Structures are given as structure tokens and as C-alpha cells.
Amino acid sequence: MRLSVALVAVIVLAGCGSPPAKSQALGASSPSVPASSPQSPAGPSSSSGAPASGGPCTIFPADNVWHADVSKLPVHRDSATWVSSIGATAKGHPDFGTAYGIPVTPVPAGQAKVKVSFEYAAESDPGPYPIPRDARVEGGASADGDRHVILYDAAACKAYELYAAHPNGDGSWKAGSGAVFDLRGNKLRKAGWTSADAAGLSVLAGLARADEAAAGKVDHAIRFTAPKTRKQYIWPARHAASTSTDAALPPMGARFRLKASVDISRFPPQARAVAQALKTYGAILADNGSPWYFTGTQDPKWNNSQLDALKTLKGSDFEAVDASLLMVEADSGRCRRL
Length: 338
What we know:
By secondary structure, this protein is of the alpha/beta class. It has helices at residues 5-13, 79-86, 210-215, 269-280, 304-307; strands spanning 93-97, 104-106, 116-118, 149-153, 158-163, 166-167, 173-175, 177-182, 222-226, 255-258, 283-288, 293-298, 318-321. A hairpin with a 4-residue loop joins strand 4 and strand 5 (158-163).
């Protein structure tokens, strides 16, 4: 299909391929998490295991859709409707900080793998999974809720992600669903498959991280939730989690960005880094939940007072974009390299 001159202009102004920002690894006081981009000079600390061959392990390649600059993409035709359905007056919320968020557990080199049984086995990667005995569970060992367990294996350069995870007495685990992601590739999950996230995407890839904020640059989209979604998913999502066919509701995978006109110049450093990421890389709808809840890591390096500035944002400060222009192949997370 021939592209119009206008469409070509849009693609030239947005997409993947520009040098990603440099990011520092977390220090010893908190779990090591990989740098987002291949340009990072520092990999995870030694407690995460040795990097895989070919350089430090990063969270997907630079040309992956999570790293796509969407600041110049056209506004989606359904933007106003979707924003209204999520809540135009609802306040944004950083669902992360020093005491809450989704923790990431580094996998030590040589970690033995254990069996995991799944409620949704037909759509889960069977494993076994390299789960340390001290693996951190979202919300704590006795928590209810989503109980994500996110494992970062630097040696294999993979992420192992579990939803509704519970340990068994014999060392094995049970979970609602699970997925394994090759962090050096762009392959998406099978069409229609869930993951540890309702949209079938990597949870790790969409987490705002304190090390990034400290470096002043979050170079990827951020995962977020909406109260109601449609029984549909759009690229790069692979799974829907709704029974509603209401066209006013956004589908899983819908991408939003913070409007360029929103003034974030007076935000404190950590909040400003996250807000700028929301402008440049946007946010991907990945699960059902409270309106405009943006997800990040639980980490003592966050400053909760600084993050409070994100609560001044409201739904009408966001707009949906047409990210389909970035797609190269439906089954790949690789986006157009400019």
C-alpha cells in the first residue's frame, strides 16, 4: 500500500531507532534491575549474575515498541472518547514508591529452576522457573491482590513473570499465569495469550524504576490501568480481559501520552523524569484497575514526596495516539527504525 505524503511525514517524526538514554544500575541497597537501553554503560550489579554474551542484558532492544518515541504520532480518532471512559477528571496516580509497587527479584547465577503449576496453563509458558527462595511477591508474602513475581535473569537475559503467585511447601509454586520473555528479542506472545499481565505484555518492561529517574531519563513507555476495557486488544497487546463490546471503552494495548502542553517544569526531579517519559514514550494500557494508575517498582530509592507531583495530573491531560503506524509485523514488538 502506498503511503501518503502526510503519513510519511508522521513516521519520520516518530518511532524507534534514535540512541536511547543512558541509565545506571541500582545500587546494593535495592534489587538490581537492568538498564532499559543497549546504550547503557553499566549493567546490573553482580548480585544479578553475569551479563549474557554480547554486552549487558537490557530490557528489550532499542527498536522495541516499548522504547518508541510517540511524541509526534497523530492523535487517535477515539482519543476523547477513551479518555472520557477512563476518567477525564480522575487524577493520575503513581502506583509505586518506597513501600508499594511491583518488586523485581534478580536471579543469581546458577539458580535452580522449580516447577510452577498454572490456573491458565494453556496460555502460560510451562517453565520450570528460576525462583529464588527469597523471591519478592508484590504486596508481601501474605498479600492478596495480583501477587506478581517478576524475575530478572541477567545471565540468560530473560524475564520470568508470574501472576497470582504462591509458594508451595515443597519449593514449587502455583500461579494464575506465567510468561518468559527473551529480553534480547522482539517476539510477542502468541495471539490471544495472556501473560502475567492482562494485555499479554511484559510487566517488567513497563515499570518506572528509581534508577532511571535518578539518572534523569526514563526511556520507555509505562504500564497503566483503566477501570473498564473493551473485549479487544491492539498491537502490541496480545490479550483482552473484558466481556464488554462497548466501542467507547479502550482496548488493551491502547497507547496514551501526556500532552506536550502540560507544564512539568516545576515537578521535582523524580516526578519530572516520569512525566517526561509519559510525554515522549507514553503509557500502554495493560490491565484493568483504578483510572490512570501508573506502575513502577517498589524501591527504597524512590522519594514518595517527589512522586506526589504526579497526582496533580488528570485524565484530560492525556491523549491516545495511533501507534499502529509503528508496527512492522503483527507478531513482533519491533517498530519502524528511522
